[in-house]
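debug: dumping io for the single-chain case to check the tokenizer round-trip. Nothing else runs in this session.
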Amino acid sequence: MRPELPNQAQIIDQLNAIVEHELAGVVRYTHYSFMIFGYSRIPVVGWFRSAATETLAHATEAGEMITMLGGHPSLGIGSLLETHRHDMAEILNESMEFEIQGVELYRQLLALAEDSGSITLEEYARRLIAEEAVHISDIDKMLRRPGDVAQAVQSEAP
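debug: decoded output
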């Protein structure tokens, strides 16, 4: 049996917040993939569907971490805001906000993991922060016009 971490309940709560956030991302990115129109439709739809698949993998991994710690994964889903704004730039800006929120959730988990002394949780949180930073960078690049410098966000390098 695995020894309990000093802040295990807080870690499980944070992981459940991550599960709910990531599951909302699956719905969000799938919805966005339906709402893309215009010349760039085919590659952008593919990108959003790939993001939905990856987001589901993130939710699954967080759920597995919860059960590893003896917790119970949430059946909840994070906030689903329908803005009815389906312009490509607006969709990408909403995606950027979503990814930034995700990084914050993983940073909070990292702080808890560092306090707990769990290298497994620390490495998990660091890896996901890095993956989310790459997503932010990808979205930032999609929001730019050719030749523009970063305009949407100045994130740390992946």
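debug: round-trip ok. The CA atoms of residues 140 and 152 lie 6 Å apart.
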